[in-house]
Design goal:
Elements: H1 12-43, H2 46-50, H3 76-111, H4 114-128, H5 132-143, H6 147-174, H7 177-184, H8 189-225, H9 237-246, H10 255-284, H11 287-299, E1 304-319, E2 322-334, E3 337-341, H12 348-355, E4 364-372, E5 375-376, H13 382-391, E6 393-396, H14 410-422, H15 426-439, H16 445-449, H17 458-470, E7 476-480, H18 488-505, E8 508-513, H19 516-522, E9 525-530, E10 533-539, H20 540-545, H21 550-557, E11 607-609, E12 612-614, H22 617-622
Parallel strand pairs: 3-8, 3-9, 6-7, 7-8
Antiparallel strand pairs: 1-2, 1-4, 4-5, 9-10, 10-12, 11-12
Domain ABC transporter: 310-556
Keywords: ATP-binding, Cell inner membrane, Cell membrane, Membrane, Nucleotide-binding, Translocase, Transmembrane, Transmembrane helix, Transport
Family: Belongs to the binding-protein-dependent transport system permease family. Belongs to the ABC transporter superfamily.
């Protein structure tokens, strides 16, 4: 595989090595800058940096003053070195305050009941919507100016971000079976939090702290510049910049020392925090998911590319209230397993059912094309639709027992389509049903044929459904949450059965699921759907290994570490907006931790790079793909 410029693409291990090196370099240089500032506080007297000497006003760099003097004749080098230390301590104090307030608050909210969670998160969200600058001004107005008071204000504002993260992680972990059993065996709440909750918080907190440090330095410089934090004559990078601006006409070089130091700190924090995010995002994806997906992909039969059995192209599906699926495009190569993943209400079932001609009453395709083996379904005659449904597309429904007629024996379910749609005799259809039941692993096909749906276990009922879907020898099978009604051991067997049948029968499988575990276990490619739109797509190993869209990242974060099983997505506040609701820009903006003004300024494009596509301005900006002037400046 070649990289963009014709160079071989780096292996994941090579990428991780490079990322680690990036973090080490960034962190080492930051520590060096800090140590230089710290040493200065012990070696340079405060007087030499604050004492005015009007005879030496605005002296250029020279032997006496290596960086020159400011407009009050103070040595610029001494002031810059002391400012480094002051700013570092102000930012570290703010972050410490944020962690001390935010983390326990978040854990407390997460451990409380749903009502407590709803109410407190409303309050937290309300406070979060207040700009940090306003919070600091309130702190300064009530506590007075100065470094400590502004750090308290900044710390309080940042603490709400930590509270959100801690609450999310607490919700994710508190209903884990091992936590429940610890609770049952009498472990108190405090020990529960200390033993089980806190260790899981470390990873997201480290990532967020790296980002917050960067924001903290910018904010600290801004506050000092406006005279809200460190007070003159004491130096800080912000007030050095303000002094330099006042003397800009006479001595323009004055801006360089503080400016360059600030830029260096921000760039190094960028380097370090991006590296940490990348490293922990990759290693944060449950290892077994990735390993399982990669191992399985290496054993898969070849997919015949270029022969698409299903193409859904720019499809919009409308109901009375509006569009429920918006401009969705997906395709399946022959023999490929493709997962369509998302929460309830994301439109994934509606999208898939459009390919089977099974849209519910009142829903219709108002734009786009659906093709099965080259036959256009949109506007197809009822006859063509019937034959496509019987011969080309098979559907496996979520709840097999309720998907069967309770008054029919299994035999009738399996023979009826063969007799009515394929013209087989009853005997032929019965023999075929026996063969199909054998093929799906039912030990006593004859006995099974005589049973009613309510006499079947969930696993057997799903096998019967699979047999029914295979009856027409379809080239595409749509499986709508085929395992969610089953217990976990049966889930894996049913998935493996589907994969085995796919390998021998060469059908394409469209797997609708809300579980990243199922995606990793079964799919070659994945489309992530949110509120009626595809937000990310690509090869499973790529999307799970390097998720770009914050929603995909949240879905992955909701999978417990080292546990391949389904769990409810609790990591995000709020819920999926109704797909019919018209929103100005990114449909995920209301729940996105990285939302910025540009995200709601217009529809976010779906941009693909090397087969991996996502609908997120932030991801696109980071990849240097998105370069629309005027929409990049205010992104996080
Ligand atoms: S476009 Fe903006 S709001 Fe939407 S997912 Fe990306 S960062 Fe979040």
């Amino acid at each position: 595989m070649k990289g963009q410029a014709g160079r071989p693409a780096a292996s994941p291990r090579g990428r991780r090595r490079r990322t680690r090196r990036q973090i080490r370099i960034g962190a080492a240089l930051l520590v060096l800058i800090y140590v230089v500032g710290l040493v200065a506080t012990f070696t340079i007297s405060s007087e030499s940096a604050t004492e005015q000497s009007l005879t030496e006003r605005l002296a250029p760099p020279g032997r006496d003053h290596l960086l020159g003097t400011d407009q009050y004749g103070r040595d610029l080098l001494a002031r810059t070195l002391l400012a480094i230390s002051v700013d570092f301590h102000a930012v570290l104090l703010a972050v410490a305050v944020a962690v001390v307030i935010g983390v326990p608050l978040g854990v407390l909210i997460g451990m409380g009941g749903p009502w407590f969670d709803r109410v407190t998160m409303r309050v937290v969200d309300a406070f979060l919507s207040i700009p940090t600058l306003v919070v600091v001004m309130v702190a300064v107005a009530s506590l007075g100016q100065g470094l400590v008071n502004t750090a308290l204000g900044v710390g309080f504002s940042f603490s709400l971000i930590y509270a959100r993260i801690a609450r999310t992680e607490t919700l994710n972990i508190k209903n884990e079976p091992f936590v429940m059993s610890a609770r049952q065996s009498g472990v108190g709440r405090a020990r529960l939090v200390g033993r089980h909750i806190m260790p899981t918080l470390a990873r997201p907190l480290i990532v967020e702290t790296a980002v917050i440090l960067r924001a903290g330095f910018m904010l600290q410089a801004t506050l000092s510049y406006f005279g809200l934090s460190v007070q003159p004559p004491h130096p800080s990078l912000g007030n050095l910049l303000r002094d330099a601006q006042e003397a800009a006409v006479e001595a323009p070089w004055q801006v360089l020392p503080a400016g360059l130091v600030l830029v260096a700190i921000i760039l190094l924090l960028n380097l370090t925090s991006d590296g940490i995010s990348d490293l922990l995002a990759v290693s944060g994806t449950p290892r077994r998911l990735l390993d399982g997906a990669r191992g399985r992909l290496s054993r898969l039969p070849e997919v015949s590319s270029g022969s698409r059995s299903l193409v859904i192209e720019s499809v919009t599906i409308q109901v009375d209230e509006g569009a429920v699926v918006r401009d969705v495009s997906i395709h399946l190569e022959r023999g490929e397993v493709v997962a369509l993943v998302g929460e309830s209400g994301s439109g994934k079932t509606m999208t898939a059912m459009s390919a089977a001609g099974l849209l519910p009453p009142g829903a219709e395709i108002v734009a786009g094309q659906v093709q099965v083996n080259g036959h256009d379904l949109v506007g197809a005659s009822p006859g063509l639709m019937r034959s496509l449904r019987s011969a080309d597309v098979g559907v496996i429904f979520q709840n097999p027992i309720s998907a069967m007629n309770p008054t029919w024996r299994v035999e009738k379910h399996l023979t009826f389509p063969s007799v009515v749609l394929r013209g087989l005799t009853r005997e032929q259809a019965r023999q075929r049903a026996v063969d199909l039941l054998g093929e799906v692993g039912i030990a006593d096909p004859e006995g099974c044929l005589r049973k009613y749906p309510h006499e079947l276990s969930g696993g057997i009922a799903q096998r019967v459904m699979i047999a029914a879907a295979l009856a027409g020898e379809p080239s595409v099978i749509i499986a709508d949450e085929p395992t969610s009604a089953l217990d976990s051991t049966v889930q894996v067997r049913v998935l493996d059965l589907l994969l085995g049948l796919r390998a021998t029968r060469h059908f394409s499988l469209l797997l609708i699921t809300h579980s990243m575990g199922v995606v990793a276990h079964a799919a070659d490619r994945v489309y992530v759907m949110y509120s009626g739109e595809i937000v990310e797509s690509g090869a499973v190993s790529e999307v799970l290994g390097h998720p770009e869209h914050p929603y995909t990242q949240a879905l992955l974060a909701a999978v417990p570490q080292n546990r391949m099983r389904e769990r409810e997505l609790k990591g995000l506040s709020g819920s999926v907006p109704r797909p019919t609701r018209e929103l100005p820009g990114c449909r995920f903006a209301e729940r996105c931790p990285h939302v910025a003004a540009a995200c709601t300024a217009g529809r976010v494009p779906f941009v693909e790079r090397h087969g991996h596509a996502s609908r997120c301005l932030r991801a696109q900006l980071e990849s240097d793909v998105f370069a629309v002037e005027g929409r990049r400046g205010d992104l996080p």
